[in-house]
Amino acid sequence: MAMRASLVHRGLVPNRGFTLIELCIATAMGAILLLSLSDVAALATSSKRKLSSAMETQAQAAFVAQRLRLAAQAATVASLRNNTSGDTGGWLSPRRFCINGNKALVETQESDTGCGGTDVIADSVSRLTVAPPSGQTAVDAASVEVTVVLNLPDGTTGPTITQIVRIKGLLE
To answer: What dihedral angle (degrees, nearest 10) is formed by the CA atoms of 10, 12, 15, 21?
Structure first.
């Protein structure tokens, strides 16, 4: 053992391991690599969140369109009157769709004029309008044009749903 120590001391047997400089360089390179990977992971997470919220809003839009179409097809309009913005009024009687104070689209009964129903069919709705198609009056319209504008979770305007649906109650 004493002989080996003297050979190492003279430089005849190479040292094993890394020098301090080599360890510092390797640590710095590893840190740079980890930082770049964390940026990529953060970007991927952000993109996934935006995409999933947009997909959720699109699914809500499809559901709203389906509910409004079914309500319009089953409607028996008792009276033709102007409705306020954000409310279907008497158009889709006996159902009423309205935007409550939380900006949610609520399906309720026609008698619920305060929009106090609890059947929320979409969140973050900025506009709901129901009117005869352009060029027609409420008296001669056999259909109704329904427009709903949804907002994305970040507050920006999302999809706009506009559909013209025939109302059987207008002709009966």
So the answer is: 70
pTM of this structure: 0.61
> How far is residue 124's CA from residue 59's CA, in Å, rounded to a whole number?
13
Token duo for residue 88: 């279907």
Do β-strands 95-99 and 119-122 pair in parallel, antiparallel, or remain unpaired? Answer: unpaired
* Bridge partners, 149 (sequence order): 127, 160
The answer to whether 114 and 136 are in contact (CB under 8 A) is no
* DSSP H or E segment with residue 139: none
| β-bridge pairing 95-99 and 125-131 | unpaired
Instruction: Locate the domains of the chain by residue range.
Output: 56-170
Q: How confident is the prediction along the chain (172 residues), in pLDDT tens digits per residue?
A: 555 555 555 666 566 788 899 999 999 999 999 999 999 999 999 888 888 888 888 888 888 888 888 887 777 655 555 555 666 767 777 788 888 888 888 888 877 778 888 888 888 888 888 877 777 766 666 677 888 888 877 778 888 888 887 776 544 4
The residue among 15, 38, 35, 18 whose CA lies nearest residue 26 is 18
